[in-house]
Write a structure and sequence with these properties.
- By secondary structure, the chain is of the alpha/beta class.
- The protein has 2 domains: about 5-185, 2-Layer Sandwich (Nucleotidyltransferase, domain 5), CATH 3.30.420.40; about 195-385, ATPase, nucleotide binding domain (Nucleotidyltransferase, domain 5), CATH 3.30.420.
- It is built from 13 helices and 10 strands.
- The chain has helices at about 15-20, 50-60, 100-105, 110-130, 150-170, 175-185, 185-190, 230-240, 245-255, 280-290, 305-340, 360-370, 380-385; strands at about 70-75, 80-85, 90-100, 140-145, 170-175, 195-200, 205-215, 215-220, 350, 375.
- The protein has a 5-stranded mixed sheet.
- α8 packs across α9 (about 245-255).
- The protein is globular.
- The termini are close together.
- The relative contact order is 0.14.
């Protein structure tokens, strides 16, 4: 998820990022730091050949965006993805291999996910190259996600990127997963200018940031326990849904059949006047409700449920979704107010990440945007979830 970073050509990175590009990744902590630009300007004699090629590329002059050709690799969690994109934003190809570990293990098992990535990475990258009708020798650089994510999974992508870069003498671009989610909208919305407010919502993170410029962000709110995507996945699993295509889509579909006001769940953090998120308590409310209704969801999947049982599950799903998104609305409204005080020129509210594919979420957050005179901007669903393009 890198191509929106190209105009800033080679700003410095942290020592941790430079280290990751030279050696196998170490475990990442799931914490939100202010985003940093993730290209390198290394110049010391000890700099690796890969890093020196970045300097050579920069000193040789900035090529036209059309001439830049990037291979992107993403293996941060349970999807193996690759894409080829031109520097002007034209997407030449996308390839992805999705794992179904969530169904069997009730969540992503890092070691199993690593093995699945290792089996799929060569084929996925080759497919992206073939579909774009290019070869490695045509590339300008290789971009790869280096975090946040599961360290075992990230290692697979970094290893593949380093291998290609070494063989073909290409620079490596290390990509911050969440910054890429924030900036991918600029790839498909050419008129999206700084500053803007961004909400990033996925299985592992909730994050509200004021994007003032490339590499300049103010964090307004973050996840203090579980992210909304995690809550959707767990609720879907507890309700006995088919989650082979993801817990979020399955729960959103079932919620259409239910009454969103039937279960009186409590909105998280209503008493806290900040922009942080918490979904652990709402998850617990859902679990206790299922248990109190004596639903045997572990033994009876939704496909085998009686009509009455299915309706009850649909009511729980709809009520959960209403409160989960209402929590988003509360925090976003406060964040909009804060952001407009800091940067009155803000015109756009960007919503990205896997959960941004949810149409109910988009509709409700569009109300927040319109209420405050902002334009809601969100990538197409294929660029919301993890992918090699962004």
């Amino acid at each position: 998820m890198v191509f929106t970073l190209l105009p800033a050509l080679w700003p410095p990175v942290s020592r941790a990022t430079a280290f990751l590009l030279r050696t196998p990744p170490k475990p990442f902590r799931s914490q939100h730091l202010l985003f940093r630009s993730l290209l390198t300007s290394a110049s010391s004699p000890s700099t690796s050949p890969i890093h020196r090629s970045l300097v050579t590329m920069a000193s040789a002059g900035i090529p036209t965006r059309r001439d830049l050709l990037m291979l992107g690799i993403e293996t941060s969690c349970d999807d193996t993805a690759a894409a080829v994109v031109r520097g002007d934003g034209e997407i030449l190809s996308q390839a992805i291999s999705s794992q179904v570990l969530l169904v069997k293990w009730g969540g992503v098992a890092p070691k199993m996910a690593e093995e699945a990535h290792a089996l799929a990475i060569d084929q996925v990258v080759q497919k992206a190259l073939d579909d774009a009708n290019v070869s490695e020798s045509d590339l300008s650089a290789v971009a790869v996600t280096i975090g946040p994510g599961l360290s075992l999974c990230l290692r697979v992508g970094v290893h593949k990127a380093r291998k290609i870069a070494k063989v073909f003498g290409l620079p490596i671009v290390g990509v911050h997963h969440m910054e890429a989610h924030a900036l991918v909208s600029r790839l498909v919305n050419k008129d999206l200018n700084y500053p803007f407010l961004a909400l990033l919502i996925s299985g592992g993170h909730n994050l509200l940031v004021l994007a003032q410029n490339l590499g300049e962000y103010v964090q307004l709110g973050t996840t203090i326990d579980d992210a909304i995507g995690e809550a959707y996945d767990k609720a879907a699993r507890w309700l006995g849904l088919d989650i082979r295509k993801g817990g979020g889509p399955a729960l959103e579909e079932l919620a259409l059949e239910g009454d969103p006001n039937s279960i009186n769940f409590t909105v998280p953090l209503r008493q806290h006047k900040d922009c942080n998120f918490s979904y652990a308590g709402l998850k617990t409310q859902v679990r206790l409700t299922i248990e109190s209704r004596n639903l045997c969801t572990d033994d009876i999947p939704i496909s085998s449920a009686t009509e009455e049982d299915r309706q009850l599950r649909a009511n729980i799903a709809a009520s959960f979704q209403r409160i989960a998104v209402l929590h988003l609305e509360d925090r976003c409204q406060r964040a909009v107010e804060w952001a407009l005080k800091m940067k009155p020129s803000i015109k756009n509210f960007v919503v990205s990440g896997g959960v941004a594919s949810n149409q109910y979420v988009r509709t409700r957050l569009n109300h927040i945007a319109e209420k405050n005179g902002l334009q809601l901007v969100s990538p197409p669903p294929s660029l919301c979830t993890d992918n090699g393009v962004s």
